[in-house]
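Working notes for the structural subgroup meeting. M.R. asked for a predicted model of this chain before we commit to crystallization trials. I am recording the input and output together here so anyone reviewing the notebook later can reproduce the run.

Input as submitted:
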Amino acid sequence: MARSETDLQAMARDHLWLHFARQSSMTEGPGVPIIVKGEGHHIWDASGKKYIDGLSGLFVVAAGHGRARLAQAAARQAEELAFFPIWSYAHPSAIELADRLAHLAPGDLNRVFFSTGGGEAVETAFKLAKQYWRLQGKPTKHKVISRFVAYHGTPQGALAITGLPAMKSMFEPVTPGGFRVPNTNWYRAAEQGFTGTTPEEYGRWAADRIEEAILFEGADTVAAVFLEPVQNSGGCFPPPPGYFQRVREICDRHDVLLVSDEVICAFGRLGEYFGADRYGYQPDMITFAKAVTSGYAPLGGTIISDRIHEPFSHGTTSFPHGYTFGGHPVSTAVALENLDIFEEEGLLQNVRDNSPVFRSTLERLLDLPIVGDVRGDGYFFGIELVKHKATKTTFDDDESERLLRGFLSKALFDAGLYCRADDRGDPVIQLAPPLTMGPAEFDEIEGILRTVLTEASAQL
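Returned structure, recorded in token form:
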């Protein structure tokens, strides 16, 4: 029996704990939006209202909502083999997906360790890096370097890599060994201390801060550098020209592993299967999740180079780490079907063809006084909001609270656009729509943003 919206709100209020959310939104407010249906680029709430999904759920539903063939793939697999672990055993869909991912991944990334999500994939990479160096006779190499404001997950190890102090303070002490360097925010490069003039100079400057941190900590203590191809938190920071090539040189020079955290950026978000291919660099590991199944089943993983796998490939050595549902038969079967859709419908090419159109459509918003910057790549863009455009002055904490949570989040949703208003860093609106979208939907998104942001400017 279908429950009424009133009944669902009451049950949610009494029993559901929302993730990354203020629980007062349910206990003190009118309730939580309840999404009941998805089809293509759109979602519907319990009252029947239709919205554009401008965030692919949460950077996840790459192939779009309502794909019957993905649901059917899950059902077929569940009927044949609903579950079996890959702890000393295997099953066909995990084997086939590992083979397929190894052929898609760059260079010698030929081994796949499955998990159920992105945080677990990062946790896997962190632990594996530390054990690898122990096996190499370098047990002091246990520290990791990541960027300011970067988000890498919530498990204790991944949280140590995350560069958001406000997300960690209530859980301290977290796993030790995480150190931060500047991110690649070209819009605010001068505020970071960069004194050059070109993006190429900035790329070298930002990469050299990584080398500076390695030398300061001691190369014999640093295990790995964790970087997203385009940094999500803070609002879509793409790499300056030459940045990743310089980082690769630095890691090689100091015998440090380079981990490309592609939980968001893999599987078409940037127009390639992997962001490392988009920017032409070779990591030692890639973490992935989200779009590998387009969200039709939970799956994540870490793709590992032959070099790192080698000491585990013989004798009694093992990696004492794993997850009950890692490489789940249903999830891996769905991922294989999802990749078939990517190939048959040319979704990566669609992103490559239409990303410039998406960018230019969003850049029309730069005529608004509240819009300071539009940045990103592929189908992954951030719009930074400012108080004073000429000076790039941002909002203080109280102003950001009133702007984002007090007005924009609700106003955009009420106007029919599901996206993300975020202030982890400077206030931004983030967009990461399904890879099936095109120019007509971009225009619709821009129109909604323009109306709401104009009203926000007037209120300010």
